[in-house]
Design the sequence.
């Protein structure tokens, strides 16, 4: 598994920040923390697949749990509406679809 999860967390956080900035929202701290949590979840999911604890087909379900959590966190930040939070999460998912899927060797985003 050739993936720098620390860098990935930063990239996801930056993507969330950039989407929220487009809505005039300043939630950088929350965005970066959620980016790190998403990257950590991806690492754990990849390890569970590698160790045979879950099937690759089950991996997207585990990622979805983390993404639901991140949506909930972003929605609690004052001034971030449902649409902005969803757009931020979708931006993160778009980032994950490419490089992460290639590095892991199985699709993590449905």
Sequence:
């Amino acid at each position: 598994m050739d993936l720098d999860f620390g860098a990935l967390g930063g990239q996801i956080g930056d993507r969330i920040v950039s989407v929220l900035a487009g809505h005039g929202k300043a939630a950088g701290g929350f965005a970066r923390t959620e980016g790190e949590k998403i990257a950590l979840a991806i690492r754990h999911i990849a390890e569970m697949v590698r160790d045979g604890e879950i099937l690759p087909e089950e991996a997207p379900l585990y990622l979805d749990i983390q993404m639901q959590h991140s949506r909930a966190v972003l929605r609690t930040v004052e001034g971030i509406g449902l649409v902005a939070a969803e757009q931020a999460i979708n931006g993160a998912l778009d980032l994950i679809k490419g490089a992460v899927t290639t590095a892991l060797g199985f699709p993590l985003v449905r």
